[in-house]
Amino acid sequence: MHDSFNSAFHGPGFAIGLFSLAVAANASETAPLAHAINTARPSFSSPATTLERGHWQIEGGYQFTSNNDDGVESDNHTIPQVLLRLGLNERFEANLFWSGYTDIDSNSGDVDGANDVAVGISYQITPDDAQLAMGAFVTLSLPVGSDEFSSDGADPGLGFA
């Protein structure tokens, strides 16, 4: 979708800027946390609970995979795997996820570039004191990544935790 490294980062930067404005708008009404946080990292699962209103959280990571399929060997590095979370109210939170930059080194050729950005909303189905925590989320991946890593379309998603 984008021909240069710089244009691939225009989309993620714009989305992160909008998310930062939402955080700043909520900052004056933020109360202290009433319970411990529940992170989505270092795993790739989604938590069933949401952040409290006005609180935000930044999570990140590094992913490495190594494959050897039918003589094709490859090493894949992706960083920063950033997830920004913002508590909207008692049951809802906004999410912004960007895998970041991927570098694939392979004996059949190397490729690198930026990945698409996803925005989403999480809903905490059960109350904080429930025996079994349950949640749901919807996401929309936006085609702002490099040609090699973009789906070139807006991709919706639905999940349960």
Give keywords.
mainly beta, single chain, 42% strand, 8 strands, 1 helix, 161 residues, eight-stranded antiparallel beta sheet
Structure description:
The chain has 161 residues and is mainly β. It has one domain. Helices cover 14% and strands 42% of the residues. It is built from one helix and eight strands; from the N terminus they run αββββββββ. Strands 1, 2, 3, 4, 5, 6, 7 and 8 form an eight-stranded antiparallel beta sheet that branches. Strand 4 and strand 5 form a beta hairpin. It is elongated and about 50 Å long. The two termini are 32 Å apart. The N terminus is likely disordered.
Helix/strand order, N-terminal first: HEEEEEEEE
Number of domains: 1
Separation, N- and C-terminal Cα atoms = 32 Å
Total E-strand runs? 8
- Beta-strand level of the residues, as a percent range? 35-45%
Average pLDDT, all residues: 85
Given as residue ranges, the uncertain stretches (5+ residues, pLDDT < 50) are 1-9
Shape descriptor: elongated
Class from helix and strand fractions: mainly beta
Rg calc: 18 Å
What's the total helix number? Answer: 1
Largest sheet: 8 strands, antiparallel
Percent helix, as a range, is: 10-25%
